[in-house]
Amino acid sequence: MPRYFLHLAGQLPANDLMGHECINDDEALEHGSFIAHRVGTEKPNMVREENFIFVTNERGDELFKVPITSTLSAGTEGSLRSSRRPCSVTSVFFSRSLTSSRDSAG
User: What are the Cα distances from residue 72, in Å, to 36, 41, 57, 66, 69?
Assistant: First the structure.
């Protein structure tokens, strides 16, 4: 299966060094949209015009730019925080890039 990379770009960039296997470009776009929405929902301050997820293929060709979005409205943020979630998408981004950076530095 082809591997796609979902990079966070803009105010606080983070490179996806591990990638994600998707069936095709359409599924990669769908996954990029999911990530962009999760980042915006978990970190509402990231919803800015300059912040987005860009999706590249294995060759490094940029396929899509997906703006960071959120569907949170006033008063719903607290209920989201208290819900059970297995992990934070943004922490996955940052832990991936930090872990891979340390591994390649050694």
Answer: 13, 6, 30, 18, 9
Place of tokens 């591990």: 18
CA-nearest of 40, 2, 33, 3 to 18 is 3
Give the three-class secondary structure for 49.
coil
Taking 3-state DSSP, the helix, strand and coil percentages for the chain, each rounded to the nearest 5, stand at 40, 20, 40
pTM of the model: 0.67
Contacts of 44 (CB under 8 A, 6+ apart): 70, 72, 77
Number of helical (H) and strand (E) elements in the chain, helices listed first? 3, 4
Cα separation, 31 vs 55, in Å, equals 9
Strand partners, 5: 56
Q: Give the span between the Cα atoms of 16 and 61, in whole angstroms.
A: 14
- The pLDDT > 70 percentage for the chain reads 67
